[in-house]
Amino acid sequence: MPDWNTRLEVTVNGQRITPIQSFNPTFTTPFTALHSLEADNQGFIRQPSTFTFSMVVKAIGTVVADLTEMALNGTPFDVSIAEKQGTDWSLKSIKFANCVITSATPSNTTLTDAPTATFNCSALKVTIEKGS
């Protein structure tokens, strides 16, 4: 039975980004039904897959400034998510390769908590390593 005491670690180009408030990947593999004159639903036509993700980062230190600079320059980067310790996760690691930031949204500044920034990104390739 998992004890759920592990955590995931997110790195950008080998440099750990902390703290990450949330990381939300989205994979789409669209299929379109193929019809013919004789009958409907004869098969599928597979469309290209897309990989996008958003990450929310606390605006502490230079992380948000570095990511914003990468967004403005269109700098490609890699993101990898891996278990820091333990074996509770179903995926041992996920690597998003050749990513670009498509939009960035900073939060409002409050007196009670550090501001955050949400970065929406696209990746050209995803590699997944299954856990044990």
Report on the structure:
A hairpin with a 2-residue loop joins β1 and β2. The strands form 2 sheets. The chain has a 7-stranded antiparallel β-sheet with strand order 2-1-7-8-9-6-3. The longest helix is centred in the middle third of the chain and has 11 residues. The chain is 8% helix and 54% strand. The chain has one domain: Roll (Pnp Oxidase, Chain A), CATH 2.30.110.20. It starts with 7 loop residues before the first strand and ends with a strand.
Q: Report how far apart the termini are.
A: 13 Å
> Which descriptor suits the 3D outline?
elongated
What would CATH call the homologous superfamily? Hcp1-like
Number of helices: 1
β-strand number: 9
Cα gyration radius (Å): 19 Å
In short:
This protein is mainly beta. The chain has one helix at 63-73, and strands at residues 8-12, 15-16, 20-28, 31-34, 43-46, 50-58, 77-83, 91-106, 116-130.
Features:
single chain; 132 residues; mainly beta; Pnp Oxidase, Chain A; seven-stranded antiparallel sheet; 1 helix; 54% strand
What is this structure's SSE topology?
Blueprint: E1 8-12, E2 15-16, E3 20-28, E4 31-34, E5 43-46, E6 50-58, H1 63-73, E7 77-83, E8 91-106, E9 116-130
Antiparallel strand pairs: 1-2, 1-7, 3-6, 4-5, 6-9, 7-8, 8-9
